[in-house]
Design goal:
Layout: H1 3-23, E1 32-33, E2 36-37, H2 46-76, H3 79-104, H4 129-133, H5 135-149, E3 157-162, E4 169-174, H6 177-204, H7 212-245, H8 258-279, H9 284-288, E5 307-308, E6 312-313, E7 322-324, E8 331-333, H10 338-361
Antiparallel strand pairs: 1-2, 3-4, 5-6, 7-8
Helix pairs in contact: 1-2, 1-3, 2-3, 5-6, 5-7, 6-7, 6-10, 7-8
Length: 363
Amino acid sequence: MNAFFDTLLFLFIVILVGGLLYGLPRLTRPDVYFAVTVPPAFRDAPEGREILARYRLQTVLSSLLALGLVIGAGFAGSSGLLLAAVLLQFAGCVGAYLSGRRQVMPHAIEPRQVREASLAPRAAALPGGWPLQTGPFVLLAAAALYLNHRWADIPLRFPVHWTEFHGPADAWAGRTPAGVYGPLLNGAVLCLMLAGLAYGLLRWSRPIRLSGRSGQAEDSFRRTVAGVMAAAEYFVAIAFVWVGLSPLMAATEGPPGVWAILGMELVLVIVTVVVFVRKGQGGTRAAAATLVGETELVGDRTLDGNWKAGIFYVNPDDPALFIEKRFGVGYTINFGRPVAWVILAAVLLIPLAAIVLAALGGK
């Protein structure tokens, strides 16, 4: 294991995650605080600020301890310490969130019951239209055609997995259709899943505001999330094209081009975080910058009782499939809808199918 590069990577991850979690409570809608419906002015009141300060202190402490473990892992060359650092930060931040939520709950109020509705069908055009959406599949298909053209140049046996970035391979595949085209097929399935989720988000999410600047900001936010998913499609396609072409790269140690792929991933993550921080959940930060007051900015209007730990939304009476997160930025699914479990099963089974396909390719 190259301890230096691994340490840098995990240091960046811990710092990025810690910074994001540090600011999350201020990215939610004004009257949703630690996933609890509260008066819009509560989080800026002395007690609300005190709760935030305690949460941030716990988040910073757990992240600093995680950084210490990462640095220790760099000197000791221990991958176990790296894993321990990630788990420690996760446990500390989850504990800080749950503690903050418990302190906010006594200040909970009933959400506003006024609803807005539109009789017009909602447009669900994917970002960039079909020309942009077909791009990832064109890349994967082109790689498949290139591999078919170079079939004779593909080794009869080639490496497909490394436990270390700079070590020898520990799994191999053969020059078979499953072994050669399997990664490209996996990439196509993942891209199709991302496109389907983006379409579902635009089509079956429940809007909170339809009119005014807040409504415009919310619509822009929803389309931004779909746009991020489209960008993720291209990243997935490029990554799997690179993996698919790796048999022709004659790599002897470490996955070829892994740092280039990781660099692309980090850029995508950083850009996404910056965009979402500027917009805020539901576009409320962007809308607030153009409003004289915050009378148009409202919470998600869901009942607190339908949220389990403020994270999982369960409401079989709500026809919406995608709901804005209460802690975080983006959307979650309504676990009260049966189709939500189908989506969850697909998300879990697709990686399993990829592992099985890779194993078949190695025979």
